[in-house]
Amino acid sequence: MEKAKYCFKKLDESAISIIKELFVSVFSNEPWNDDWSDENQLHLYIQDLIGQSNSLTFGLFEGTELIGISMGHIKHWYTGTEYLINELCIDNTKQGQGIGTMFLNMIERNCKELGLTHIFLLTENDVPAFEFYKKNGFCELENSVSFAKEL
Question: What pLDDT, in 10s, does the model give residues 25-50?
């Protein structure tokens, strides 16, 4: 894999259409099978992630094609300032080739340059992403749990 053929960029709201396209193509398929057919809900969700004052979005391009995105925000915490990743994905046809690991390394480098001290994210423990993050040095927080309540 040639690093030179990939371009890492910070993205903003001007890239919303290509972000939505990649996001839907990845998360509407296995193993996620999310239903993003409601265009308005999709737009609001992506806008929430990329359109806030503390949003931090990265894109990975192969030529002119967006093949990876990381959407989240900067969070100031007592242990330091961190990047909280809400969504991270690589184009389905590019997975399993080391591109995700390369993208994570680029994200980490950029976060260090910004003075951030941690990257935090959530994923499910029964999807391939779980092992991917562990392989890339992320530690499972054993004393943490996620809660949700349907209203």
Answer: 999 998 899 999 999 999 999 999 99
Tell me the per-residue pLDDT of 85-111, one tens digit each, with 9 for 90 and over. 999 999 999 999 999 999 999 999 999
CATH of the domain at 33: 3.40.630.30
Distance, CA of 115 to CA of 118 (rounded, Å): 10
Dihedral, CA of residue 114, residue 20, residue 128 and residue 77, to nearest 10: 30
Whether residue 148 is contained in a domain is answered as no
Selection from 111, 18, 34 nearest residue 69 by Cα: 18
CA torsion sign for 9, 13, 90, 142 is positive
Structure tokens that stand for 38 in this block:
């409601």
Using CA atoms, how far apart are residues 140 and 42, in angstroms rounded to an integer? 29
pTM above 0.85, yes or no: yes
Q: Could you tell me if residue 142 is inside a domain?
A: no
